[in-house]
Write a structure and sequence with these properties.
There is one protein chain. The strands form eight sheets. Strands 8-15-9-10-11 form a five-stranded parallel β-sheet. It has a five-stranded antiparallel β-sheet with strand order 21-22-25-24-23. The protein has a three-stranded antiparallel β-sheet with strand order 3-4-5, with no helix packed on it. The two termini are 26 Å apart. By secondary structure, it is of the alpha/beta class. The protein contains nine helices and 25 strands. It folds into three domains: 2-88 and 226-289, FAD/NAD(P)-binding domain, CATH 3.50.50.60; 91-223, 3-Layer(bba) Sandwich (FAD/NAD(P)-binding domain); 304-361. It has helices at residues 2-8, 31-35, 99-104, 114-125, 140-151, 167-170, 172-185, 272-289, 352-357; strands at 16-19, 52-55, 58-62, 67-70, 75-77, 81-83, 87-89, 108-109, 132-136, 155-160, 187-190, 194-200, 203-208, 213-216, 218-221, 225-227, 237-239, 250-252, 257-261, 265-267, 304-309, 312-318, 324-327, 333-339, 342-349. Bound molecules: flavin-adenine dinucleotide.
Protein backbone atom coordinates (compact mmCIF):
# COMPACT_ATOMS: atom_id res chain seq x y z
CA UNK A 1 0.00 0.00 0.00
CA UNK A 2 2.97 2.32 0.69
CA UNK A 3 4.15 1.72 -2.88
CA UNK A 4 0.72 2.35 -4.39
CA UNK A 5 0.25 5.56 -2.41
CA UNK A 6 3.69 6.91 -3.33
CA UNK A 7 3.30 6.16 -7.03
CA UNK A 8 -0.35 7.26 -7.23
CA UNK A 9 0.53 10.65 -5.74
CA UNK A 10 2.69 11.48 -8.80
CA UNK A 11 0.03 11.46 -11.49
CA UNK A 12 2.40 10.18 -14.23
CA UNK A 13 2.26 6.49 -13.32
CA UNK A 14 -0.54 3.98 -13.83
CA UNK A 15 -0.82 1.85 -10.70
CA UNK A 16 -2.82 -1.35 -10.41
CA UNK A 17 -3.31 -2.82 -6.94
CA UNK A 18 -3.94 -6.56 -7.07
CA UNK A 19 -5.75 -7.75 -3.94
CA UNK A 20 -7.12 -11.14 -2.96
CA UNK A 21 -10.32 -12.17 -4.77
CA UNK A 22 -12.31 -12.70 -1.58
CA UNK A 23 -11.05 -9.81 0.52
CA UNK A 24 -11.36 -6.08 1.01
CA UNK A 25 -7.86 -4.94 2.06
CA UNK A 26 -7.69 -4.26 5.79
CA UNK A 27 -5.27 -3.11 8.48
CA UNK A 28 -3.88 -6.37 9.79
CA UNK A 29 -2.56 -4.92 13.04
CA UNK A 30 -6.08 -3.90 14.06
CA UNK A 31 -7.57 -7.37 13.94
CA UNK A 32 -6.94 -8.07 17.65
CA UNK A 33 -9.52 -5.34 18.22
CA UNK A 34 -12.01 -7.52 16.32
CA UNK A 35 -11.04 -10.74 18.11
CA UNK A 36 -10.89 -9.36 21.65
CA UNK A 37 -12.38 -5.90 21.52
CA UNK A 38 -15.32 -3.93 20.28
CA UNK A 39 -14.22 -3.38 16.65
CA UNK A 40 -16.66 -4.58 13.98
CA UNK A 41 -14.85 -6.22 11.02
CA UNK A 42 -15.71 -3.35 8.67
CA UNK A 43 -13.87 -0.90 10.96
CA UNK A 44 -10.48 -2.32 9.96
CA UNK A 45 -10.91 -1.71 6.20
CA UNK A 46 -7.86 0.02 4.77
CA UNK A 47 -8.41 3.38 3.06
CA UNK A 48 -7.28 2.79 -0.53
CA UNK A 49 -5.37 5.24 -2.71
CA UNK A 50 -6.88 6.24 -6.06
CA UNK A 51 -5.52 3.40 -8.17
CA UNK A 52 -7.02 0.63 -10.30
CA UNK A 53 -8.06 -2.16 -7.95
CA UNK A 54 -8.15 -5.74 -9.26
CA UNK A 55 -9.68 -8.15 -6.74
CA UNK A 56 -8.14 -11.32 -8.15
CA UNK A 57 -5.54 -13.33 -6.20
CA UNK A 58 -2.16 -13.56 -7.94
CA UNK A 59 -1.26 -17.23 -8.28
CA UNK A 60 2.02 -16.71 -10.02
CA UNK A 61 4.26 -14.43 -11.97
CA UNK A 62 5.74 -15.14 -15.37
CA UNK A 63 8.81 -12.96 -15.03
CA UNK A 64 10.01 -13.56 -18.61
CA UNK A 65 6.68 -12.43 -20.07
CA UNK A 66 6.23 -9.76 -17.34
CA UNK A 67 2.74 -11.03 -16.52
CA UNK A 68 0.79 -11.98 -13.40
CA UNK A 69 -1.31 -15.13 -13.53
CA UNK A 70 -4.53 -14.42 -11.66
CA UNK A 71 -6.95 -16.80 -9.95
CA UNK A 72 -9.70 -15.94 -12.47
CA UNK A 73 -7.47 -17.24 -15.26
CA UNK A 74 -6.73 -13.81 -16.67
CA UNK A 75 -3.25 -12.32 -16.99
CA UNK A 76 -2.05 -8.86 -16.14
CA UNK A 77 1.05 -7.36 -17.72
CA UNK A 78 3.40 -4.95 -15.98
CA UNK A 79 6.41 -2.75 -16.63
CA UNK A 80 7.44 -3.01 -12.98
CA UNK A 81 6.10 -5.30 -10.27
CA UNK A 82 6.26 -4.72 -6.51
CA UNK A 83 5.46 -7.88 -4.55
CA UNK A 84 3.94 -6.91 -1.19
CA UNK A 85 1.97 -10.04 -0.31
CA UNK A 86 3.05 -10.13 3.33
CA UNK A 87 3.50 -13.29 5.33
CA UNK A 88 1.71 -16.41 6.48
CA UNK A 89 1.57 -17.65 10.06
CA UNK A 90 3.54 -20.71 11.09
CA UNK A 91 1.23 -23.58 11.94
CA UNK A 92 1.59 -26.54 14.25
CA UNK A 93 4.71 -28.55 13.43
CA UNK A 94 3.90 -30.89 10.52
CA UNK A 95 3.23 -34.39 11.75
CA UNK A 96 2.55 -33.32 15.37
CA UNK A 97 0.56 -36.25 16.77
CA UNK A 98 -3.09 -35.21 17.11
CA UNK A 99 -2.53 -31.81 15.46
CA UNK A 100 -4.73 -32.41 12.42
CA UNK A 101 -7.56 -33.81 14.57
CA UNK A 102 -7.46 -30.85 16.97
CA UNK A 103 -7.55 -28.44 14.03
CA UNK A 104 -10.43 -30.30 12.40
CA UNK A 105 -12.34 -30.13 15.70
CA UNK A 106 -11.98 -26.33 15.67
CA UNK A 107 -9.85 -26.33 18.80
CA UNK A 108 -6.74 -24.73 17.28
CA UNK A 109 -6.99 -21.13 16.15
CA UNK A 110 -4.72 -18.69 14.37
CA UNK A 111 -4.80 -14.91 14.55
CA UNK A 112 -3.49 -13.68 11.24
CA UNK A 113 -6.48 -12.81 9.09
CA UNK A 114 -9.69 -10.93 9.67
CA UNK A 115 -11.55 -14.23 9.22
CA UNK A 116 -9.39 -15.72 12.03
CA UNK A 117 -10.33 -12.79 14.27
CA UNK A 118 -14.06 -13.16 13.62
CA UNK A 119 -13.91 -16.93 14.24
CA UNK A 120 -11.95 -16.44 17.44
CA UNK A 121 -14.38 -13.84 18.74
CA UNK A 122 -17.30 -16.21 18.12
CA UNK A 123 -15.48 -19.11 19.74
CA UNK A 124 -14.55 -17.11 22.85
CA UNK A 125 -18.13 -15.89 23.16
CA UNK A 126 -19.29 -19.51 23.18
CA UNK A 127 -16.97 -20.57 26.02
CA UNK A 128 -17.88 -20.33 29.67
CA UNK A 129 -15.69 -17.73 31.41
CA UNK A 130 -13.03 -18.07 32.53
CA UNK A 131 -11.92 -20.11 29.54
CA UNK A 132 -8.65 -22.04 29.56
CA UNK A 133 -6.57 -20.74 26.66
CA UNK A 134 -3.17 -22.16 25.70
CA UNK A 135 -1.07 -19.82 23.56
CA UNK A 136 1.83 -21.31 21.65
CA UNK A 137 4.58 -18.81 20.88
CA UNK A 138 6.79 -16.28 22.55
CA UNK A 139 6.82 -13.23 20.29
CA UNK A 140 5.04 -9.91 20.45
CA UNK A 141 1.70 -11.24 19.22
CA UNK A 142 1.75 -14.10 21.74
CA UNK A 143 2.63 -11.62 24.51
CA UNK A 144 -0.05 -9.08 23.57
CA UNK A 145 -2.66 -11.79 23.13
CA UNK A 146 -1.81 -13.31 26.52
CA UNK A 147 -2.23 -9.85 28.04
CA UNK A 148 -5.62 -9.27 26.44
CA UNK A 149 -7.02 -12.68 27.37
CA UNK A 150 -5.70 -12.52 30.93
CA UNK A 151 -7.20 -9.04 31.33
CA UNK A 152 -10.51 -10.40 30.07
CA UNK A 153 -10.44 -12.90 32.93
CA UNK A 154 -9.40 -16.04 31.09
CA UNK A 155 -6.86 -18.55 32.36
CA UNK A 156 -3.89 -18.33 30.02
CA UNK A 157 -1.01 -20.75 29.64
CA UNK A 158 1.82 -19.42 27.49
CA UNK A 159 3.98 -22.17 26.00
CA UNK A 160 7.24 -21.18 24.28
CA UNK A 161 10.17 -23.19 23.09
CA UNK A 162 12.81 -20.76 24.34
CA UNK A 163 13.49 -20.31 28.04
CA UNK A 164 13.44 -16.53 27.60
CA UNK A 165 11.24 -15.73 24.60
CA UNK A 166 12.16 -12.70 22.50
CA UNK A 167 15.90 -12.54 23.23
CA UNK A 168 16.77 -12.25 19.52
CA UNK A 169 14.15 -9.60 18.86
CA UNK A 170 14.59 -7.39 21.94
CA UNK A 171 17.86 -8.38 23.61
CA UNK A 172 18.12 -10.30 26.89
CA UNK A 173 17.41 -7.43 29.36
CA UNK A 174 14.05 -6.59 27.75
CA UNK A 175 13.12 -10.22 27.09
CA UNK A 176 13.94 -11.23 30.69
CA UNK A 177 11.79 -8.43 32.09
CA UNK A 178 8.89 -9.50 29.88
CA UNK A 179 9.34 -13.14 30.83
CA UNK A 180 9.22 -12.20 34.54
CA UNK A 181 6.03 -10.25 33.95
CA UNK A 182 4.45 -13.20 32.13
CA UNK A 183 5.39 -15.51 35.00
CA UNK A 184 3.68 -13.18 37.45
CA UNK A 185 0.45 -12.84 35.42
CA UNK A 186 -0.17 -16.04 33.46
CA UNK A 187 0.88 -19.67 33.61
CA UNK A 188 4.12 -20.06 31.70
CA UNK A 189 5.74 -23.11 30.22
CA UNK A 190 8.95 -21.59 28.80
CA UNK A 191 11.70 -23.75 27.36
CA UNK A 192 9.11 -26.41 26.59
CA UNK A 193 7.95 -28.08 23.39
CA UNK A 194 4.60 -29.54 22.50
CA UNK A 195 5.00 -33.19 21.61
CA UNK A 196 1.37 -34.13 21.01
CA UNK A 197 -2.11 -32.72 21.22
CA UNK A 198 -5.22 -34.72 22.00
CA UNK A 199 -8.90 -33.91 21.61
CA UNK A 200 -10.59 -34.69 24.94
CA UNK A 201 -14.16 -34.39 26.22
CA UNK A 202 -13.84 -30.80 27.38
CA UNK A 203 -11.33 -29.40 24.89
CA UNK A 204 -7.74 -30.33 24.20
CA UNK A 205 -4.77 -31.63 26.14
CA UNK A 206 -1.29 -30.51 25.12
CA UNK A 207 1.41 -32.98 25.92
CA UNK A 208 4.68 -31.18 26.67
CA UNK A 209 8.18 -32.63 26.75
CA UNK A 210 8.72 -34.31 30.09
CA UNK A 211 5.17 -35.68 30.06
CA UNK A 212 3.24 -32.73 31.54
CA UNK A 213 -0.28 -32.25 30.16
CA UNK A 214 -1.87 -28.82 29.79
CA UNK A 215 -5.66 -28.83 29.48
CA UNK A 216 -7.28 -26.07 27.46
CA UNK A 217 -10.58 -25.10 25.88
CA UNK A 218 -8.70 -23.84 22.87
CA UNK A 219 -5.19 -23.43 21.55
CA UNK A 220 -4.10 -20.19 19.96
CA UNK A 221 -1.12 -20.24 17.61
CA UNK A 222 1.28 -17.30 17.64
CA UNK A 223 4.38 -18.97 16.28
CA UNK A 224 5.60 -16.15 14.06
CA UNK A 225 5.39 -15.74 10.33
CA UNK A 226 7.19 -16.68 7.18
CA UNK A 227 7.13 -14.80 3.90
CA UNK A 228 4.26 -15.63 1.52
CA UNK A 229 4.64 -14.85 -2.16
CA UNK A 230 3.08 -16.14 -5.35
CA UNK A 231 4.96 -18.62 -7.51
CA UNK A 232 7.98 -18.61 -8.30
CA UNK A 233 8.91 -17.37 -4.81
CA UNK A 234 7.78 -20.09 -2.33
CA UNK A 235 10.10 -18.78 0.40
CA UNK A 236 9.60 -15.06 -0.08
CA UNK A 237 11.35 -12.68 -2.45
CA UNK A 238 15.07 -12.12 -1.98
CA UNK A 239 15.91 -8.46 -2.50
CA UNK A 240 19.01 -6.30 -2.48
CA UNK A 241 19.43 -3.01 -0.63
CA UNK A 242 17.26 -1.17 -3.15
CA UNK A 243 14.54 -3.82 -2.74
CA UNK A 244 15.20 -5.22 -6.22
CA UNK A 245 14.63 -8.92 -6.82
CA UNK A 246 16.73 -10.90 -9.22
CA UNK A 247 14.02 -10.91 -11.93
CA UNK A 248 14.01 -7.80 -14.12
CA UNK A 249 11.97 -4.88 -12.76
CA UNK A 250 10.59 -6.93 -9.87
CA UNK A 251 10.80 -5.41 -6.38
CA UNK A 252 9.47 -6.55 -3.01
CA UNK A 253 8.59 -4.84 0.26
CA UNK A 254 7.26 -5.68 3.70
CA UNK A 255 6.80 -9.07 5.30
CA UNK A 256 7.42 -10.92 2.03
CA UNK A 257 10.84 -9.37 1.41
CA UNK A 258 13.98 -11.20 2.50
CA UNK A 259 16.74 -8.60 2.46
CA UNK A 260 20.37 -9.19 1.67
CA UNK A 261 22.48 -6.06 1.76
CA UNK A 262 26.01 -4.99 2.49
CA UNK A 263 25.05 -3.03 5.61
CA UNK A 264 22.82 -5.32 7.71
CA UNK A 265 23.39 -8.68 6.00
CA UNK A 266 20.32 -10.94 5.71
CA UNK A 267 17.21 -9.83 7.51
CA UNK A 268 13.44 -9.58 7.37
CA UNK A 269 11.08 -7.32 9.33
CA UNK A 270 7.35 -7.96 9.63
CA UNK A 271 5.97 -4.77 11.25
CA UNK A 272 3.33 -2.39 10.03
CA UNK A 273 5.35 0.85 9.91
CA UNK A 274 8.36 -0.81 8.40
CA UNK A 275 6.26 -2.48 5.68
CA UNK A 276 4.90 0.97 4.75
CA UNK A 277 8.40 2.47 4.73
CA UNK A 278 9.74 -0.37 2.59
CA UNK A 279 6.80 0.10 0.21
CA UNK A 280 7.65 3.78 -0.24
CA UNK A 281 11.31 2.94 -0.78
CA UNK A 282 10.39 0.30 -3.38
CA UNK A 283 8.32 2.94 -5.22
CA UNK A 284 11.37 5.22 -5.35
CA UNK A 285 13.52 2.34 -6.61
CA UNK A 286 10.95 1.69 -9.36
CA UNK A 287 11.02 5.33 -10.43
CA UNK A 288 14.82 5.32 -10.43
CA UNK A 289 14.87 2.14 -12.53
CA UNK A 290 12.73 3.93 -15.13
CA UNK A 291 14.91 7.03 -15.10
CA UNK A 292 12.36 9.35 -13.50
CA UNK A 293 13.67 9.56 -9.95
CA UNK A 294 16.82 9.71 -7.92
CA UNK A 295 18.53 6.61 -6.58
CA UNK A 296 16.96 6.08 -3.13
CA UNK A 297 20.05 4.19 -1.95
CA UNK A 298 20.09 1.21 0.38
CA UNK A 299 16.98 0.79 2.52
CA UNK A 300 17.87 1.02 6.20
CA UNK A 301 15.07 0.30 8.67
CA UNK A 302 14.30 3.12 11.11
CA UNK A 303 10.61 2.50 11.79
CA UNK A 304 9.19 1.99 15.23
CA UNK A 305 6.79 -0.44 16.84
CA UNK A 306 4.99 -0.43 20.15
CA UNK A 307 3.36 -3.22 22.10
CA UNK A 308 1.65 -3.33 25.46
CA UNK A 309 2.43 -6.41 27.52
CA UNK A 310 0.81 -6.66 30.96
CA UNK A 311 0.80 -2.87 31.23
CA UNK A 312 4.43 -2.48 30.14
CA UNK A 313 4.99 -0.51 26.96
CA UNK A 314 7.58 -2.27 24.81
CA UNK A 315 9.06 -0.18 22.02
CA UNK A 316 11.64 -0.64 19.33
CA UNK A 317 13.12 1.12 16.33
CA UNK A 318 15.21 -0.05 13.42
CA UNK A 319 16.44 -3.62 13.19
CA UNK A 320 17.28 -4.76 16.73
CA UNK A 321 17.55 -8.40 15.67
CA UNK A 322 20.44 -7.55 13.32
CA UNK A 323 22.70 -6.22 16.07
CA UNK A 324 24.37 -7.35 19.27
CA UNK A 325 22.39 -6.09 22.29
CA UNK A 326 24.01 -3.89 24.96
CA UNK A 327 22.18 -2.41 27.91
CA UNK A 328 22.17 1.39 27.73
CA UNK A 329 23.71 3.03 30.75
CA UNK A 330 20.71 5.20 31.45
CA UNK A 331 18.26 4.58 34.26
CA UNK A 332 15.62 3.42 31.82
CA UNK A 333 15.44 -0.10 30.45
CA UNK A 334 16.88 0.63 27.00
CA UNK A 335 18.93 -1.75 24.89
CA UNK A 336 21.12 -0.62 21.99
CA UNK A 337 21.74 -3.18 19.27
CA UNK A 338 25.12 -2.71 17.59
CA UNK A 339 26.57 -4.03 14.37
CA UNK A 340 30.12 -3.18 13.22
CA UNK A 341 30.26 -0.31 15.72
CA UNK A 342 26.96 1.25 14.60
CA UNK A 343 23.65 1.22 16.40
CA UNK A 344 21.14 -0.48 14.08
CA UNK A 345 18.24 -0.83 16.46
CA UNK A 346 17.07 0.15 19.93
CA UNK A 347 14.48 -1.54 22.13
CA UNK A 348 13.17 -0.79 25.57
CA UNK A 349 10.45 -1.01 28.16
CA UNK A 350 8.65 2.08 29.40
CA UNK A 351 11.11 4.34 27.61
CA UNK A 352 9.17 5.18 24.47
CA UNK A 353 10.53 8.72 24.10
CA UNK A 354 14.16 7.63 24.46
CA UNK A 355 13.75 4.69 22.08
CA UNK A 356 11.92 6.65 19.38
CA UNK A 357 14.49 9.45 19.47
CA UNK A 358 17.02 6.96 18.14
CA UNK A 359 15.22 6.53 14.82
CA UNK A 360 17.05 9.28 12.85
CA UNK A 361 20.37 8.46 14.54
CA UNK A 362 20.47 4.76 13.60
CA UNK A 363 22.96 3.25 11.17
C1 LIG B 1 -2.72 -10.12 14.98
C2 LIG B 1 -1.66 -9.22 14.47
C3 LIG B 1 -1.35 -8.05 15.16
C4 LIG B 1 -0.35 -7.22 14.69
N1 LIG B 1 -0.07 -6.08 15.38
C5 LIG B 1 0.90 -5.26 14.95
C6 LIG B 1 1.20 -4.07 15.64
O1 LIG B 1 0.57 -3.73 16.64
N2 LIG B 1 2.21 -3.28 15.17
C7 LIG B 1 2.91 -3.62 14.06
O2 LIG B 1 3.82 -2.89 13.66
N3 LIG B 1 2.65 -4.76 13.36
C8 LIG B 1 1.67 -5.58 13.79
N4 LIG B 1 1.40 -6.73 13.10
C9 LIG B 1 2.22 -7.07 11.94
C10 LIG B 1 1.74 -6.28 10.73
O3 LIG B 1 0.36 -6.40 10.59
C11 LIG B 1 2.44 -6.80 9.49
O4 LIG B 1 3.83 -6.72 9.69
C12 LIG B 1 2.09 -5.96 8.28
O5 LIG B 1 0.72 -6.08 8.00
C13 LIG B 1 2.92 -6.40 7.09
O6 LIG B 1 2.54 -5.64 6.00
P1 LIG B 1 2.65 -6.23 4.53
O7 LIG B 1 2.18 -5.14 3.64
O8 LIG B 1 3.97 -6.81 4.31
O9 LIG B 1 1.62 -7.46 4.51
P2 LIG B 1 0.04 -7.48 4.74
O10 LIG B 1 -0.41 -6.38 5.62
O11 LIG B 1 -0.27 -8.87 5.14
O12 LIG B 1 -0.54 -7.17 3.31
C14 LIG B 1 -0.41 -8.11 2.25
C15 LIG B 1 -1.61 -7.99 1.37
O13 LIG B 1 -1.42 -8.79 0.21
C16 LIG B 1 -2.56 -9.59 0.00
N5 LIG B 1 -2.13 -10.81 -0.69
C17 LIG B 1 -1.42 -11.83 -0.20
N6 LIG B 1 -1.19 -12.74 -1.15
C18 LIG B 1 -1.78 -12.27 -2.25
C19 LIG B 1 -1.88 -12.78 -3.58
N7 LIG B 1 -1.33 -13.93 -3.92
N8 LIG B 1 -2.58 -12.05 -4.48
C20 LIG B 1 -3.13 -10.85 -4.14
N9 LIG B 1 -3.05 -10.33 -2.91
C21 LIG B 1 -2.38 -11.04 -1.98
C22 LIG B 1 -3.09 -9.86 1.40
O14 LIG B 1 -4.42 -10.30 1.36
C23 LIG B 1 -2.91 -8.48 2.03
O15 LIG B 1 -3.95 -7.63 1.71
C24 LIG B 1 0.38 -7.56 13.54
C25 LIG B 1 0.08 -8.74 12.83
C26 LIG B 1 -0.93 -9.56 13.29
C27 LIG B 1 -1.25 -10.82 12.54
Amino acid sequence: MGTARTLASRGDTRVTLVARSDETPYTRMLIPGVAFGPLPPEAVALPLPEVDLVADTAHGVDVAARELRLASGSRLGYDALVVATGSRPRGLPPGLPGGAEARAAGLVHGLHTLADAVRLRERLAGLAAPARIAILGGGVIAAETATKLQTAGHTVTLVARSRVPGVAAFGAPVAERLAAEHRARVRTRFGRTVEAIAVVDDGVALELDGGERVAADLVLLALGTEPAAPDPWPDGVDVDGRLRAEAPDVFAAGGVAVHHDEVLGSWRIDHWEDAAAQGMHAARSVLHAFGVGEDPGVYLPRSSYLATVHGLVVSGVGAPACGRPRLDESEELVVRHELHGRIVGVSGIGAVGTVLQWSPRLH
